[in-house]
UniProtKB/TrEMBL annotation:
Region ranges (Disordered): 42-64, 85-132
Superkingdom assignment: Eukaryota
GO cellular component: M band; striated muscle thin filament
InterPro entries in the cross-refs: LRR_dom_sf (IPR032675), TMOD (IPR004934)
Record's subcellular location: Cytoplasm, Cytoskeleton; Cytoplasm, Myofibril, Sarcomere, M line
Keyword Transcription regulation attributed: no
Keywords on record: Coiled coil, Cytoplasm, Cytoskeleton
Name of the protein this chain belongs to: Leiomodin-3
GO biological process: actin filament organization; muscle contraction; myofibril assembly; pointed-end actin filament capping
Family: Belongs to the tropomodulin family.
């Protein structure tokens, strides 16, 4: 029996998102395990995303490494203190009389007293015991001569005002802006940085990890990516962006053809299943993103995004 051409199903007509959304979590796990067996791992995908998580298992016992180390240290110090306390015993005159038997002769009593006096003299002649310091770890001396002391605890010495002026003036010497871990950056200044990057043509990398970026700044970043044509790497990890802000940034990538790496892992709020599904759907319209710094909790969006990044990488190879 032969099928006519009209009955053939085109692969492009199949909606993968609709099929994945209808599957239960157990079916998604079973699908992922089958795909891991069929499809060979891609060397361009990070190692942590090539294989499934196999570390979920109940604890094997109540073993506590810290308690064991503390006990071993306590036992070692106790034995050392016992060794130090083992000094020659000095007998008092009353103890000497108590140890001498009643029926002993005078010569034997004199010998016992001489031994007692000898022990007292030897103990008096012993040098004073040196004080010993107890150290858990032998910490080596650090060479602090080559270490640069900074005024900020984070160690990031970027001058916020001068860097912002250079970005506004489109200074070609500024190709990387690193504001990571800088404490207490005003939200208004972060917005000024984002707005200044809209027309900038020289900055390639913009990193604002752990700077308190919230939802409003995320929406401004999305608008900036619609206009900017120079940034290739954007790092917004360890901030307070919710799923709506991340989805807004991904949605604007369909108008951006220069960004190749986007990192938004370790946010204060979890993105959620719906946000991850929306990210995997919107990313189909982008053909230039090659790296994404985020670990998807759901296996379905994780597989879709991995395939899309592989597709973009293959397109770049063939174009070159």
């Amino acid at each position: 029996m032969k099928l006519s051409k009209s009955n053939k199903i085109c692969p492009s007509d199949i909606d993968e998102d609709e099929i994945l959304a209808m599957l239960s979590p157990e079916e998604l796990k079973e699908l992922q395990s089958e795909m891991d067996v069929i499809i060979a791992p891609d060397e361009n995908v990070p190692v942590g995303q090539r294989q499934k998580d196999q570390t979920e298992k109940p604890p094997t016992g109540t073993f506590d490494h810290r308690s064991l180390v503390d006990y071993l240290y306590w036992e070692k110090e106790s034995n050392r203190m016992l060794e130090e306390e083992r000094v020659p015993a000095t007998l008092l005159p009353s103890e000497v009389r108590a140890q001498t038997p009643e029926g002993s002769s005078e010569t034997e009593k004199e010998e016992i007293q001489e031994k007692a006096t000898d022990t007292n003299e030897t103990t008096d002649k012993l040098p004073p015991k040196e004080e010993r310091k107890i150290n858990k770890l032998k910490i080596p001396k650090l060479a602090l001569d080559n270490i640069k002391m900074t005024s900020r605890p984070s160690g990031n010495e970027t001058n916020l005002e001068s860097t912002l002026d250079k970005i506004r003036n489109n200074n070609p010497s500024v190709t990387e802006v690193n504001l990571n871990n800088i404490e207490n950056i005003p939200k208004e200044m972060l917005l000024d940085y984002v707005n200044a990057l809209k027309k900038n043509k020289h900055v390639k990398t913009f990193s604002i990890a752990n700077t308190g970026v919230d939802e409003n700044i995320a929406f401004s970043l999305a608008n900036m990516l619609r206009e900017n044509r120079s940034i290739t790497t954007l790092n917004i990890e360890s901030n307070f962006i919710t799923g709506k802000g991340i989805v807004a940034i991904i949605r604007c990538l369909q108008f951006n053809e220069t960004l190749t790496e986007l990192r938004f892992h370790n946010q204060r709020h979890m993105l959620g299943h719906h946000a991850e599904m929306e990210i995997s759907r919107l990313l189909k319209a982008n053909n230039t993103l090659l790296k994404m710094g985020y670990h998807f909790e759901q296996p379905g969006p994780r597989m879709v995004v991995t395939n899309l990044l592989t597709r973009n990488l293959d397109r770049q190879r063939f174009c070159v």
